């Protein structure tokens, strides 16, 4: 994604793959925060500068390891900027726009691969926890209790929307107009973010 | 499942697989309603009586083709029997009980396989439309407008719960007590079944 934008895709494809492979293992095993570009470069037997040259930042390298259909740091601030009111609808609308658009094919590939490959599961989890949740909670965080639990509930509904609408293609959800889906699922996401947490879920 | 219960699993494993294979293609291509045991037996080159002997009814044969983790016709009536009040919580509670229990492993296998195999996607869709939705709507149907759309919304949240809690294991949702999850997701499912459909989604 970032590579296409900046025109940096050039370079030896073997070297690129070596770096990606080293990065996948480093992120999956050590976690995104603790893995370093230096270690990844060492494992791939290249200079750290080359990793930066090919992929930009460590953030962008994580996106490249899973071929993420969108960059949460680009998409989320706009969604969250309007404040907590209506954020559920804006999030569902943006999610559908990505999946209905060219990013949808990459999202489907990612979801299909992730359920089958334990390494990729760990990477998607890192992506979700380090990038999506942290970015969103940084903006909304001060207003939310139980932030991480709320974030995983939102993720469960959005993952399920992807599965039902784009992978299993369950009708009539699969062919419904985007705004019809936003009208039904937007309030769910809004509720997960803002409804008081019932006493049974207080400690989660 | 039914076979384990009735002790009918015996018989030539090749013949069983031949029948399952023929059934998978028949259900996927013609749909559950239109496929017949007679056609399936013919394609598998066996006597129709043998299909009944191995698998029981056509319903049970469909469950066997996908190794379904539960039989909706056994589970759903109990959930729906209490009427529409609280049906969302009962459904989420039963869903978690299946996935937290021994059925969870089979559910995970099914979900992992279904996202990768188009034939299995069609079977899961048939299973969902012919068995889950019809069984549920038969009980609740008269009280619901937009039944099929509501059913796919419920499916989207339950599929997503399975993905987030059992496949990707996103924390803290993955380790949350069942009742904490019921308290948060039960009202969503209840809302999908009973909230008025907004004007944007009226035609779906």
Give the key terms.
homodimer; 204 residues; mainly alpha; Arc Repressor Mutant, subunit A; Tetracycline Repressor, domain 2; disordered N terminus
Helix/strand order of chain A, N-terminal first: HHHHHHHHHHH
Please report the number of helical segments of chain A: 11
CATH architecture of the largest domain in chain A: Orthogonal Bundle
**What's the alpha carbon Rg of chain A, rounded to whole Å?**
18 Å
What is the terminal separation of chain A in angstroms? 35 Å
Oligomer state equals homodimer
CATH topology of the largest domain in chain A: Tetracycline Repressor, domain 2
Helix content of chain A: over 70%
Which regions of chain A have little confidence, pLDDT < 50, spanning 5+ residues?
Answer: 1-9
In percent terms, what proportion of residues of chain A is strand? under 5%
Give the overall form of chain A: globular
Count of distinct structural domains of chain A: 2
Largest sheet of chain A: none
Q: Mean pLDDT score of chain A, rounded?
A: 87
**CATH classification class of the largest domain in chain A:** Mainly Alpha
Q: In terms of structural class, how would the helical and strand content of chain A be classed?
A: mainly alpha
Q: CATH superfamily assignment of the largest domain in chain A?
A: Tetracycline Repressor, domain 2
Largest interface: A-B, 52 and 52 residues
Number of β-strand runs of chain A: 0
């Amino acid at each position: 994604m970032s590579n296409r934008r900046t025109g940096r895709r050039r370079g030896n494809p073997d070297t690129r793959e070596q770096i990606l492979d080293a990065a996948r293992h480093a992120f999956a095993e050590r976690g995104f925060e603790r893995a370093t570009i230096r270690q990844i470069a060492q494992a791939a037997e290249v200079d750290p500068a080359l990793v930066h040259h090919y992929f930009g930042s460590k953030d962008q390298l994580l996106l490249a390891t899973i071929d993420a259909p969108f960059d949460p740091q680009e998409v989320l601030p706009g969604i969250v900027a309007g404040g907590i009111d209506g954020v559920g609808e804006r999030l569902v609308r943006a999610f559908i726009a990505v999946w209905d658009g060219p990013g949808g094919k990459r999202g489907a590939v990612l979801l299909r691969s992730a359920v089958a490959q334990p390494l990729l599961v760990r990477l998607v989890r890192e992506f979700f926890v380090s990038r999506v949740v942290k970015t969103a909670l940084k903006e909304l965080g001060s207003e939310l209790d139980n932030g991480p639990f709320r974030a995983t509930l939102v993720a469960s509904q959005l993952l399920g929307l992807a599965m039902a609408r784009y992978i299993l293609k369950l009708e009539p959800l699969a062919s419904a107009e985007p705004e019809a889906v936003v009208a039904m699922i937007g309030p769910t996401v809004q509720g997960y973010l803002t409804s008081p947490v019932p006493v049974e879920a207080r400690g989660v």
